[in-house]
């Protein structure tokens, strides 16, 4: 009985929302208390129906030019929504992009999208992937026809309250689905939740080093997702063929800078870095990445001063790798809510 007034208040608030579909009464899906609450844009509230539509769209190959590629072709649930171990992904007609497909776990928390930050919202990002000639090369007319088909009509109605099909709505649904992909179940998470034995002695040593002024990792890989959401040059090349953030800002100070990636599930997503490689070749193991940082990287005018010779011992390097492996949350790979419908 005590709850009735609260429900009544909710109905009132929901009634005022600009979105025709009522938002859920509670955070959905629930995000554990040690992570920030997921923020859904005011013009794209989350509903179960929109998530369901978004999941169908995410897995639907018919949305690409040849009917061969879906978002999920390059963001594979079993690979933590990356396409490891590929260095670059293959899109329609065998076209290859230039960059390594990032995992999209916890991507709802990111402030900028893509390695160079050229999109600022997930909605905008999805539109980019959809129309990109090397990714899906969608024909918007064909897509609209498909989305008006019987299979989709009911989902469309449930998610948006009417059956008018538009690309922004497609992107809203896909983005809403993506915001539900939250990883918070690694042993590191359990440690943060107070289970101190969730990490081994070696992993705890690696964690201390990771957050220390000796290794400096956490000066960029900070916060719950181990990223500052900023762009840095970590000294991978003498010459950057992919100029990274510079392509967006045209500021010479941004030459060769890329977005700090989340390290959640990093062990599952080789090869590493925006292009999967460095001056010295492919970076396929976390050991190689730690060696890269420990050696101070390749000299480059924009290289961040924190990337410098660290003087780590072999046991210290091993502990850093062990800590990064403890960031693995394998529940992401099999969570039924995110599998192909
Ligand atoms: C052909 C492979 C391919 C397909 C298909 C594809 N992506 Fe991607 N995705 C990538 C690559 C590669 C990047 C990194 C590109 C860059 O940074 O320039 C990326 C980046 C992203 C990002 C940014 C993540 C971050 O941390 O910055 C998101 C989100 C994303 N894709 C979602 C999607 C969605 C949604 C679809 C379907 C509409 C899709 N992708 C289709 C390969 C693909
Ligand atoms: C100056 C900021 C900075 C510091 C310090 C730093 N990183 Fe990074 N890290 C980045 C950026 C930026 C990238 C992506 C670089 C690129 O692709 O060009 C990255 C990439 C990575 C990757 C690859 C992840 C992936 O998905 O490809 C790993 C692993 C990593 N860092 C671990 C570490 C460790 C361990 C340390 C400490 C020894 C460290 N980082 C120190 C900014 C930093």
Gist?
The protein has 13 helices and 4 strands. The chain has 341 residues and is mainly α. Helix 2 runs antiparallel to helix 6 (150-160) and helix 11 (286-294) crosses helix 12.
SSE arrangement:
Layout (H helix, E strand, L loop, with lengths): L3 H13 L31 H12 L11 H4 L47 H10 L8 H8 L2 H11 L6 H13 L7 H6 L8 H10 L20 E2 L13 H4 L8 E2 L17 E2 L2 E2 L3 H9 L19 H12 L5 H4 L7
Antiparallel strand pairs: 1-2, 3-4
The chain binds heme C (2 copies).
Q: Top keywords for this entry?
A:
341 residues; mainly alpha; Cytochrome Bc1 Complex, Chain D, domain 2; 2 domains; two-stranded antiparallel sheet; 4 strands; disordered N terminus; binds heme C
State the CATH architecture of the largest domain.
Answer: Orthogonal Bundle
Low-confidence stretches: 1-25
Shape, principal axes of CA atoms: globular
Number of strands: 4
Largest sheet: 2 strands, antiparallel
CATH class placement of the largest domain: Mainly Alpha
Rg over CA atoms: 21 Å
How many domains is the backbone divided into? 2
Write the CATH fold name of the largest domain. Cytochrome Bc1 Complex, Chain D, domain 2
- End-to-end separation: 38 Å
Share of residues in strands: under 5%
Named once each, the bound ligands are:
heme C
* Total helical elements: 13
Tell me the helix content.
Answer: 25-40%
Query: Structural class, from secondary structure content?
Result: mainly alpha
Assembly state: single chain
Would you list the SSEs in sequence order as H and E? HHHHHHHHHEHEEEHHH
Widest sheet: strand order? 1-2
